[in-house]
UniProtKB/TrEMBL annotation, chain A:
The lineage of its organism: Bacteria, Bacillati, Actinomycetota, Actinomycetes, Streptosporangiales. InterPro entries: ACMSD, Amidohydro-rel, Metal_Hydrolase. The keyword Transferase does not apply. CDD domains: metallo-dependent_hydrolases (cd01292). Residues 5-300 form the Amidohydrolase-related domain. Keywords: Lyase. This is Amidohydrolase-related domain-containing protein. The keyword Lipid biosynthesis does not apply. It comes from the Bacteria.
UniProtKB/TrEMBL annotation, chain B:
It comes from the Bacteria. Residues 5-83 form the Carrier domain. This is Carrier domain-containing protein. It comes from Salinactinospora qingdaonensis. It holds the Pfam family PP-binding. InterPro entries: ACP-like_sf (IPR036736), PP-bd_ACP (IPR009081).
Amino acid sequence: MTRIIDFHCHIASEMCFPGSFQSGVVDNMTVALQSKGMPVTKDKVAKMHAGTLRDPLCDHLVKEMDDAGIDEAVLLVPDFTYALRDSTHSIEELIEHHKLVVDRHPGRFKVFVGVDPRWGEAGVSLFEKAIVDYGFDGMKLYPPCGYRLSDKLLYPYYEICSQYSLPVLSHIGATSPVLDFELALPIYVDKPARDFPGVDFVLAHGSVHYPDECAMLCNNRPNVYIDVSGYEAVEVAGLNALFRRGINHKILFGTDWPVFRLQGHQSDFVNRLLEEEAFPETMSEAERDLFFFKNAKRLLEKKTSPSPSAAG
Amino acid sequence: MSEQAVTDEAICQIIKGVISKSAAKGGVTPEMNLQTDLGVDSLGLMSIAFVLEEQVGVDAFSHVDQFINAEYVSDIIKIVREN
């Protein structure tokens, strides 16, 4: 039986996504629906979209994971609070909330915490507290908020990740239209990946955003990886092509929960991979295991910082 | 179309009008899975909800959770019946 780690999830709650961020997402949906002649207003679409963000304690997500055979998931905490000032909660409060969720569901979640590098020294201290005191497991970056992965402001964070052997996962490509897309190019990982060879960098959505550039970086930088979240939105042919590029030791399964909630359940997204021939015949069972579980496990197990409970 | 008059078949026809032509080719029946049989995506599900609201009078917002968790065409029919 295949074991699965979902390397890309979020808490489904409006507290984690500022109103302006959601409004931008809804703008795109509304344009698409209205252009098809649907009888909708932005307000109606917004209410439907908000319905996908009602699982703040992840109780429903855990049920979905159980149904889909997903053992464990990585909860990502992007820090929108510097760039989008309509955030209802501070990044400190969001970190606290993620700790509560982890404690509520023992053994089911890892957390990659994000802190916008422009928060200065206080931000670095907050990040280190989340890693050392709360036992969180990596860093989440969101360049469209206004920085590049190569920004020197991020180096103190990378140094902490290097110290504790923690992975850094970054959003790549377009997102809500209220943010800057041009900053989220995969090539900006090149410099930090070279400067911090002990840190693994994961390019999120690498199977759908700039897949050629992401695959090139995976091929040539030993510490660069891809997660495939976002594959739900497109034909799985792109995944099939990705799995034939000789980097199956670098590709991680991820769903981006709750982004695709209106499109089906977590079990649908797992089954779809098996039913729609996402995997080429040349891909061995061992490589499937790498994709679904072992690549993620290998990255997560490098962590050297003791959790508070383990430390006693 | 009045709410009383709407039949299962009529609901299936509404769904058929929203999904892609290739998915609709084999027709739409209550036991079909929205995602795997009919290829309904996020926008497709919203379209179904909004067209039902317009044509049948379903209050989409009172049933958001049911729409989100709908797996089969029969789940959509159930929402219309409960409306």
